Amino acid sequence: MPMISSRTSLYFAVFFPPRPLLSPGDSCSPLHMMAFARGLVSLRGSLLLRRDAARASARAPLRLRCVQIQVISTRWQHTAPASVKCNWNLREDFFELSYGDLVMHFDYVWLRDHCRSASCYNSKTNQRSLDTANVELAIRPTKTRVDEETLFLTWPDGHVTRYNLAWLAQNSYEGQKQSSVQPRILWNSDIYTKAAIPAAHWEKFMVCDEELKKFLSNFLLYGIAFVEGVPATLEATEEVSDRVSLIRETMYGRIWNFTSDFSRGDTAYTKLALDRHTDTSYFQEPCGIQVFHCLRHEGTGGRTLLVDGFHAADKVLQKSPSCFELLARVPIKHEYIENVEGHRNHMIGIGPVLNVYPWNNEVYMIRYNNYDRAVINTVPHDVVQHWYVAHRELTKELRTPENELWVKLKPGKVLFIDNWRVLHGRESFTGLRQLCGCYLTRDDVLNTARSLGLKA
Ligand SMILES: C[N+](C)(C)CCCC[C@H](N)C(=O)O
Ligand SMILES: O=C(O)CCC(=O)C(=O)O
Ligand SMILES: [Fe+2]
User: Fold this and answer.
1) From ligand 3's centre to the CA of 423, what distance in Å?
2) CATH number reported for the structural domain that contains residue 361 in this entry
3) Where is the Gamma-butyrobetaine hydroxylase-like N-terminal domain (predicted)?
4) In a domain, 183, yes or no
5) Ligand 2 centre and the CA of 327: distance in Å?
6) For residue 279, how far is its CA from the centre of ligand 1 (angstroms)?
7) Does residue 140's CB lie within 6 angstroms of at least one atom of ligand 2?
8) Atom 4, ligand 1: which residue's CA is nearest?
């Protein structure tokens, strides 16, 4: 029997009478494995753990009885879920689970808090009913048992929590650390052009969910997507936008339609070229998506520039991790001050240029607008110098000609831009140019995508 050295005790079933010995090649059930791990069954040679073997032994007439024993908390225990290699270990401060190639650690309060039993979690509303504030922070299970694919934890008050091991593996920190929240294809102009992504077609797009799904799938992967054949009207632009998400109204209105008349106090309302940038960087939460539809252009120039900001950020990460880190850590301000007839606005947005998930270093938002960047007064002078170096590195990547995708927007061709990822700009132009569009609520675009079965 193992030494009694742990506060943790566990229940498990053993064969009665227990088989004392297994030989190499013997089929081995999970129950055997647990008994082995606890020193009840000795073993010569290595064990081959197979699900079919477990099934075969489950069919055999067995008498089971439950016993409670103490275990050494640092020893690995084994179980056999669905032919995945799986070991577990009840440590003093956490539950350790090795599942496939992944070793995971689960805090005991976490394990109590995420209990999905009927009294702790309402599976109709998918909401927690457990009052987390009432959970003892130093809580430990009094009994633990793993039965093939389920972990059973009995808490001091007698409440039992069951976890499917695959669920734990999927929801572990270590699992999240290895995967990305949003799978993406980073691109330069060559990669995007060669991918030859087809545009969605307006009529099909408006009625067919598969067409919308394909469009959204491309949009999520590349951060841009087109719909063609759209009537060159404000109404149709609104309809095509409504199909994707909720329109986000801003001080520019719900659907805007602008020319170079300087009707608003911003360079966008001129004929001047605009360097690559993201819009509404001066919002606490910049608009998620921008929709452009050029309804008319009688003149020259005016092409649209698109640059994948995440591709550029990734290059900075590879070439200069310290620059990447600085851009992700230092908060700066962007500002929109408008003082023209009928329009008085003052917007301030604060946040780093690169917004990164801390657990996997994945960039989820870039805020880059040199026109609207405000006075830097949130950073001490010695950091400021480094910040400018880092900003220059990112700017170099963003301005690399290979990274620039130039498109001429024509009436009928609606462009959706992920404004958290892809920067846009424009060439200067002559003549009458009328551009309409709107911003979309990011949460609702992702919501639409998820409702169609996409990972978003
Ligand atoms: C799109 N629309 C013309 C309505 C607004 C343009 C906003 C321009 C602003 N400088 C920014 O980058 O956010
Ligand atoms: O005129 C254009 O093509 C785009 C101008 C712009 O950057 C904007 O409206 O956000
Ligand atoms: Fe813009």
Assistant:
1) 8
2) 3.60.130.10
3) 95-168
4) no
5) 25
6) 6
7) no
8) 252
> In 3-state terms, what secondary structure has residue 399?
helix
Is 359 a pocket residue for ligand 1 (Cβ < 6 Å)?
no
- Domain membership of residue 65 (yes or no) is yes
Alpha carbons 179 and 184: distance in angstroms, whole number: 12
Atom 6 in ligand 1: residue holding the nearest Cα: 268
- Check residue 48 and give its pLDDT: 23
The atom of ligand 2 lying closest to the CA of 294 is 3
H-type alpha helices, 123-233: 165-170, 173-178, 189-195, 202-207, 209-222
Counting the structural domains of the chain, the total is 2
How far apart are alpha carbons 76 and 96 in whole angstroms? 9
pLDDT in tens, 7-44: 222 222 222 222 222 323 333 333 333 332 322 222 22
Q: Which atom number of ligand 2 is nearest to the Cα of residue 426?
A: 3
pLDDT digits (tens, 9 = 90+) for 376-406: 999 999 999 999 999 999 999 999 999 999 9
Q: Does residue 3 sit within a domain?
A: no
Report yes or no on 152 lying in a domain: yes
Query: How far is it, in rounded angstroms, from Cα 395 to Cα 389?
Result: 10
Distance 258 CA to ligand 1 centre (A): 10
Nearest protein Cα to ligand 1, atom 9: 279
The dihedral of CA 227, 286, 377, 267: what is its sign? positive
Distance 347 CA to ligand 3 centre (A): 16
Least confident of 33-42, 173-182, 198-207, 421-430: 33-42
Question: What pTM was estimated for this model as a whole?
Answer: 0.83
What is the mean predicted confidence (pLDDT) over 413-424?
A: 98
Q: What is the mean pLDDT of residues 226-232?
A: 98
Same domain, 214 and 114: no
Instruction: Clarify whether residues 170 and 293 are in a common domain.
Output: no
Domain interval for residue 201: 189-451
The 3-state DSSP composition of the chain as helix, strand, coil percent (nearest 5) reads 30, 30, 40
Q: Is the CB of 276 under 6 A from ligand 2?
A: no
